[in-house]
Amino acid sequence: MRSSSYSSHRTSLAGLAVGLVLIAAACSSAATPAPGATSLTVGSTNDPALGAYLSGGNGMTLYVLTTDTPDTSTCTGSCATTWPPLSAAAGATISGPTGATLTFATMTRADGTVQVTYNHMPLYYYSGDSVAGDTNGEGKNNTWFVAPLSGSVETSPAGSPAPTASSGYGY
């Protein structure tokens, strides 16, 4: 009986491990194209209050971090867990939505992953958004904003000081 119980326990653990791998793969596919993908399409969403902004192919809102500098991401470690970068395969062609007049490109992050940029600004998702159209990251720490289709981020409401590099990541 002990052998049967041990075998059943091993089978259960193996099933759990496979399930976790499948869940992890499903979660990561929303932010990252399939390995070897040669193209990635960025979409857009129009919001009455926020205007037209960029969204991933999955419809999830894309954000910019105003403390980033052109073609350089300062969001690493736990920040990148909260604000996953929009990544692409090396050499992928990035296309944008109608109305996008600025350039989509890629850059290589410090960890070696390739991140999509718009107007040279790295693009991110927000882990606090759960469905397409959520904009829960808008204005976080006055440094995170939806990535506007125009490419120009309004970083602070009228009368508020503009964010500085010391503002932090806002996660």
Structure commentary:
By secondary structure, the chain is α+β, with helices and mostly antiparallel strands. The protein has helices at residues 2-29, 78-82, and strands at 39-41, 43-47, 51-55, 63-65, 93-95, 104-108, 114-118, 121-122, 144-146. It has a 3-stranded antiparallel β-sheet with strand order 6-7-8, with no helix packed on it. Strands 1-5 form a two-stranded parallel sheet. It starts with a helix and ends in a 25-residue tail after the last strand. 23% of the residues are buried. Mean pLDDT is 78; it is low at 4-34 and 156-171.
List keywords for this structure.
171 residues, alpha+beta, 2 domains, 3-stranded antiparallel sheet, two-stranded parallel ribbon, 2 helices, 9 strands, globular, disordered C terminus
Shape assignment: globular
SSE order, one letter for each helix or strand: HEEEEHEEEEE
The N- and C-terminal alpha carbons lie at a distance of 52 Å
Q: Care to count the β-strands?
A: 9
The order of strands across the largest sheet is: 6-7-8
Give a quick account of the main beta sheet: strands, pairing sense, barrel closure: 3 strands, antiparallel
| Average pLDDT taken over every residue | 78
Structural class: alpha+beta
Helix content: 10-25%
Report the radius of gyration as a whole number of Å.
19 Å
Percent in strands: 15-25%
What is the number of independent domains?
Answer: 2
How many separate helices?
2
Low-confidence stretches: 4-34, 156-171
